[in-house]
Amino acid sequence: MKAIAFPLILTLAAGMAAANEPTRLSHKSSAGMSEKTEQALKARGEVVSVEGDKLVLRTSSGEETYMATGKAAAKLRSLHSGEQVVVKVRNNELISVSHAKSGKHHRA
To answer: For residue 95, which of 51, 52, 88, 101 is within the disulfide window of CB 3.0 to 4.6 Å?
Structure first.
C-alpha cells in the first residue's frame, strides 16, 4: 500500500504545483484582440457629399459618414456627388475608395 501511495501523492503534488504556476504566454485583454482582428468592411453606395476628409455615402442601409486619412483622403478630392463607389472601412475610418463598376455590359 505504501508503494502505491507515495508515487500517487508525488504526482498529485506536482500537478497542483503546475496548476498554480502562471503560463508563459502573456494574456491580452479581449478588447485589444478585437481591435486587431476586426475585418475591413466593404460598402457600396452613392456619394452624397465630400467635405475635406469626410465622406457621406448613401448605402442600402441609409446614409453613412466616414473619415479618411492618407491615400483614401487624397482619393476623396476626385469624387463628386452622385457617383457610385465601393469603400473599405475599418473602425468607421476609410481605408480605400474606388469607383463602382456598372453592372451594364455594352455590346456592339
So the answer is: 88
